[in-house]
Amino acid sequence: MRKIFVMCLAIVMVVACKSKSATATRLDRGTQVALKGNWTLSKVVFPGSDYIKINAFDLADSKCFVGSQWKFISNNNKGEFALNQGNCPAYSSPITWFINDEGKFVMKILDESKAKKVKEGYVLTVANVTDSSFELIDTANVGGKSVQVVYQFVRN
Asked: How far apart are CA 82 and CA 71, in angstroms?
């Protein structure tokens, strides 16, 4: 009887300590609707940004994203973005995205694939949402230290 109790207690502890996935939570529809529309990524800020290059979204240097155009459609969680910075690779892609109730922006870059076939994506924090601007905050490893990369958007 005692072994069964200890075993049940161990199972409860394992289940209770299981980490929550960013995709396994409820949606924040209000914030999603606030982001609906066309946006320009106006600025990328992080400590040492004048000297350090960060490869944003595994595509290009973060500075290449300044001036990029983004479109978010909240009713079907689709969208797209396009890089248009000189001296940077031209790139555009459809995306699928949502914001969970923990304030996390979850995005997949589709690259002509269906969303269910894309197994990896990006999880960023949404901050400072207003009618005309918002920020996405990512964490990057620079020299063994975690730094926050802030992507600042303005409404078109």
From this structure: 9
The CA distance from 5 to 147, in Å, is 45
Q: Does residue 5 lie within any of the structural domains?
A: no
7 falls within a domain: no
- Residue 50 in tokens: 């004048």
Per-residue pLDDT tens digits for 13-63: 433 444 445 555 678 788 999 999 999 999 999 987 778 888 899 899 999
pTM beyond 0.90: no
Using CA atoms, how far residue 63 sits from 48, 114, 121, in Å, is 13, 28, 20
Burial class (CB in 10 A: 0-12, 13-18, 19+), 151: buried
Name the nearest CA neighbour of 54 among 139, 154, 133. Answer: 139
Q: Residue type at 131?
A: D
- Per-residue burial over 121-146, b if 16 or more Cβ lie within 10 Å, else e, is bbebbbeeeeeeebbbbbeeeeeeee
In-domain check, residue 97: yes
Range of the domain at 71: 24-155
The token duo for 66 is 């300044």
CATH of the domain at 138: 2.40.128.540
